[in-house]
Write a structure and sequence with these properties.
The chain is 0% helix and 55% strand. By secondary structure, the protein is mainly β. It has a 7-stranded mixed beta sheet, with no helix packed on it. Strands 2-3-4-11-6-9-12 form a 7-stranded antiparallel beta sheet, with no helix packed on it.
Amino acid sequence: MKSVIHRARTRGHVNFGWLDSYHSFSFGQYYNPERMNFGVLRVLNDDVVAGGGGFPTHPHDNMEIVSIPLRGNLAHRDSMGNEQVIREGDVQIMSAGTGVRHSEYNHSQTESVNFLQIWVMPKQRDIAPRYAQQRFDPALRQNQLQKVVSGQAEDGLAVWINQDASFWLGNFAAGFKTVYNLAAPDHGVYVFVLEGEIRLGDETLGRRDGIGVSAISQIEIEALADAEILLIDVAMH
């Protein structure tokens, strides 16, 4: 088994007033050559955007971009003609492909929004840009993992990603244990603790800690306190 731990306190951090952001991997002004990616997982940003603030229209290409609001709502607009509100409980994905321009703003003028911005390198480059959004019932991830992103088309409600990857959300009561089987021998899993405390192998992980594990076929997760996690299963090549 190979593992890498990213403690919450060691993440990159920027605060521009309107944006308070923590980076698990190198991004923008934060550069750490030992934190460039975990397999095809390239970016995991924990963003808090102040009321009325946001990211003005800007371009992307050849990247799979996932947004998961944890608190509050986002207003999305893009060059494909999509204009949506991404609400707490939704998962949004945008395949930038050959190129897309978009903006993401806090939907509220007064309350902050906290969301995860996650980038995954694509399996196939230069596809047509694509947008999808889906709402998920949090009751269906109580003491179980709920698949919200899938590399397989038409995989339940999970939104499709152009990569051999899947995202799972779980809300676990203290004392709950679960085993997760990796999707393939050449995959790894990155577990990000949203709230609470868990044990994975010999490691105890708290709020906003992350751990990447590879060269293993399954992992066991134990909730040491009530916990919420995001598990990302990705190809390591």
